[in-house]
Amino acid sequence: MKKQYLLTPGPTPIPPEVALKEALPILHHRTSEFAAIYKDAAEGLKYVFQTKNDVYMLAGSGTGAMEMAVVNLLSPGDEIIVASCGNFGDRWIKIAETYGVKVTSVSVPWGNAVKPAEIEKALKANSNIKAVYTTFTETSTGVVNDIKSIGEIVAKTNAVLVVDSISGLGGQEFRTDEWKVDVNVCGSQKGLMLAPGLAFISFSEKAWKLAETSKIPKFYYDIKKYKKSFASNETPFTPPVTLIVALRESLRMIKEKGIENMWNDYKLLAKAARAGMKAIGLELFGEVPCEVVTSAKVPEEIGGKIVKTLREKYGVSIAGGQGDLKGKIIRFAHMGYIGKADLLVGFACLEMVLAELGMKIEKGKAVAAAEEELIKG
Amino acid sequence: MKKQYLLTPGPTPIPPEVALKEALPILHHRTSEFAAIYKDAAEGLKYVFQTKNDVYMLAGSGTGAMEMAVVNLLSPGDEIIVASCGNFGDRWIKIAETYGVKVTSVSVPWGNAVKPAEIEKALKANSNIKAVYTTFTETSTGVVNDIKSIGEIVAKTNAVLVVDSISGLGGQEFRTDEWKVDVNVCGSQKGLMLAPGLAFISFSEKAWKLAETSKIPKFYYDIKKYKKSFASNETPFTPPVTLIVALRESLRMIKEKGIENMWNDYKLLAKAARAGMKAIGLELFGEVPCEVVTSAKVPEEIGGKIVKTLREKYGVSIAGGQGDLKGKIIRFAHMGYIGKADLLVGFACLEMVLAELGMKIEKGKAVAAAEEELIKG
Predict the structure, then answer these.
(1) B58, A196 Cβ separation under 8 angstroms
(2) Are A10 and B219 inside 8 Å of each other by CB?
(3) Is B153:B116 a contact under the CB 8 Å cutoff?
(4) What are the C-alpha distances in Å from A287 to residues A8, A139, A164?
(5) Does B2 score more than 90 pLDDT?
(6) Is residue B113 a contact partner of residue B287, using CB atoms and an 8 Å limit?
(7) Residue B35, Cβ neighbours under 10 Å: how many?
(8) DSSP code per residue over B298-316
(9) A106 and A114 in contact (C-beta within 8 Å)?
């Protein structure tokens, strides 16, 4: 009976209109009925990705699509650059090294944003670089990277730019084609307002060209199989039918609202979230805060207890830090189906928990500061 | 507005009680609430698998779990036996060869069942064989293989037995441990009465030992990651939360009914389906028909039209043949949430379509023959 409020950076809350689609009688996936739904969803994905290229769907976690972006482009011994600024950026390194790919890391400490100039330097230093892998919004720290600048740099070289936009797409301005992103990898459970279990990937012509040289073996993740099936609105292996039916609905809602309006809404929520954190005496974390999750430092003596207390006492789920940041930061998401009122619920309960854990705060101040920003609009 | 009746061998119809669980507000996957659901589901899977070993869940199609059973056990150059009798058995060969594994095929023509004696001979002829890969119920033909006998043969050797039970588990007697199956691979959308998107895999001690020697690179499919997370009721990557919540419900229903009672129900449906096919003048296809899908030969001049007409005119989905069997057989499923009345709906509409396509049949005969068997029980 405990009412739950989800303010985590994935899964994010799902609109009831979308969730209910998952409960509809299941369709067979090799029928004209499903093909029509698949086609609609594929069109919707192009819009959200802001790309003219096809976006393939696969059953899997976002990490599966990340692996797809490694095994389809590279061969053992190939050299790549990874620009990481957190847990998910580091995952590129782990996947690449698993497959015998040589990684030049231009990573920065967690909390910083990656430096486009460093990528440029590394590219100039080594003309063998096949691809640059990076992250759009690094959820583990709440930092956003300047993909547009990185795109301009990489586009001038023979290297392919691969971006993990899993946690940011739909929540913050991202333009795959305009920003010259060759491979864009995404998941269902963040900005797209859907349950986890579906992953997405788009490939530019430059990426397809590199893929021709790839020698890493692959079967389930072989993107050529997906390309071939895509032409007849199918997937090579049984797709997660209910998730795709729900996806069509969430994409319909996003299209109806307009992607720019979505971005603007989250930008405002981010402004309000940052104001709320500061008003309550919590220092913001992260060099360049993204617009889908707000991170703040918390006193070490209570840091490990905030997330658990919020959830157990008030049913409010936010996220804590990962890795070295465990117990040191909290992460408050405003992506997916999260509105102004949800943000205020989060701050009100956070105030109570901080007070209960012994931090000296003035109750109501975070809420007031957030309200102020929300009213300004 | 056209009412749909699903009689396909995956996806199969989903009980509304299960489907509605997919529409519940989403839970975060790193919470005690989700861990409890995950634990329940994992216990239920052990029961359906009839194994004492842990059963791991992953986001993916069944093929993903098949790939997991290849990349975690083998190294390039390793030798295996594949006993295939259809499209899905052949997939083992394709996956293994993708990873540089040498395959000795003891496959049989589509429609036949694999020969345990041939597997025994091949094992005796080559002591380097690391594993034997085969299929339980081969959905592409409707044939069931004698896994129990194969298990006895393989258990006497150093080889590991890997079985794809994707389309049969829950629908026909299968005992992982008693039949000495080392690795059992399954999917969600068949006998487990769930939407596609979840895959399962169990590993015996013998399999874990072989896995220690495996040198094929893997990241998302690295089963050690799943084993490690399993200990704390988690998955290494974001799991398909809504599907797992629904899985717990379908497994609860299966447990409540009793797995042996499920098997008996489908056995009766299979008997009735075979009687119906014969009564209408269609010859059964397959050397050893399984109990989850019934295949029958159809006249070539109308073979390509039956499935489409049934679906378009009456909303009834059955399956046709795959590969060389396209247009030559129809496949009528009785697995998952399919009951006696559904079978009769299928036969009644099949009678109409066969008559409409010009086949000389006596209307009502298939239905009558099926009824006869169903009443006998």
Answers:
(1) no
(2) no
(3) yes
(4) 21, 13, 19
(5) no
(6) yes
(7) 15
(8) --HHHHTTHHHHHHHHH-E
(9) yes
Q: In b/e form, how buried is each residue of B83-114, taking b as 16+ CB within 10 angstroms?
A: bbbbbbbbbbbebbebbebbbbbbbbebbbbb
Q: Regarding beta strands B55-59 and A329-333, do their DSSP bridges make them parallel or antiparallel, or are they unpaired?
A: unpaired
* The pTM of the whole model exceeds 0.95: yes
Q: Please classify residue A93 by burial: count the beta carbons closer than 10 Å to its beta carbon, then call 0-12 exposed, 13-18 middle and 19+ buried.
A: middle
How does A151-183 read in b/e, with b if 16+ C-beta sit within 10 Å?
A: bebbeeeebbbbbbbbbbbbbbbbebbebbbbb
Q: Give the 3-state secondary structure of residue A61.
A: coil
DSSP, collapsed to helix, strand or coil, labels residue B284 as strand
Q: Which two tokens stand for residue A128?
A: 């063998």
Cα–Cα dist A348/A355, whole Å: 11
Q: Which amino acid is at A161?
A: L
Give the pLDDT of residue A283: 97
Dist CA B153 CA B277 (whole Å): 35
From CA A125, how far away is CA A79, in angstroms rounded?
12
In angstroms, what separates the C-alpha of B152 from chain A's closest C-alpha?
A: 31
Tokens 């040589």, located at residue: A102
Q: What does the pLDDT read at residue B193?
A: 96
Residue B292 pLDDT = 97
* Tokens describing residue A133: 């892998």
- The CA distance from B163 to B166, in Å, is 9
In the predicted structure, residue A308 carries a pLDDT above the cut 90:
yes
pLDDT at residue number A1: 78
Nearest neighbour of B241 by CB, restricted to A62, A195, A317: A195
Paired residues of B55 in beta bridges = B202
**ipTM reported for the complex, 2 dp:** 0.96
Assess whether the previous peptide bond of A11 is cis (omega < 30° from 0): yes
pLDDT score at A374: 98
The amino acid that residue A345 corresponds to is V
* Per-residue pLDDT band at B1 (split at 50, 70, 90): confident
Please report the residues numbered 115 through 174 in chain B whose beta carbons come closer than 8 angstroms to any beta carbon of chain A.
none
Chain A partners within 8 Å of B189 (Cβ): 26, 238, 241
Residues paired with A186 in a beta bridge: A200
**Preceding omega of A16 cis (within 30 degrees of 0):** no
Split at pLDDT 50, 70, 90, the class of B316 is very high
CB of B215 within 8 Å of a chain A CB? The answer is no
C-beta of residue B133 within 8 angstroms of C-beta of residue B82? yes
The residue to which tokens 């080594």 are assigned:
A126
Please judge whether B238 and A311 are an interchain contact, meaning their C-beta atoms are less than 8 angstroms apart: no
Task: Cite the DSSP H helix spans in chain A.
Answer: 16-19, 32-49, 62-71, 87-98, 116-125, 147-155, 205-211, 223-230, 241-257, 259-279, 300-303, 306-314, 340-356, 365-376
d(CA B293, CA B276): 13
C-alpha–C-alpha distance, residues A197 and A258, integer Å: 25
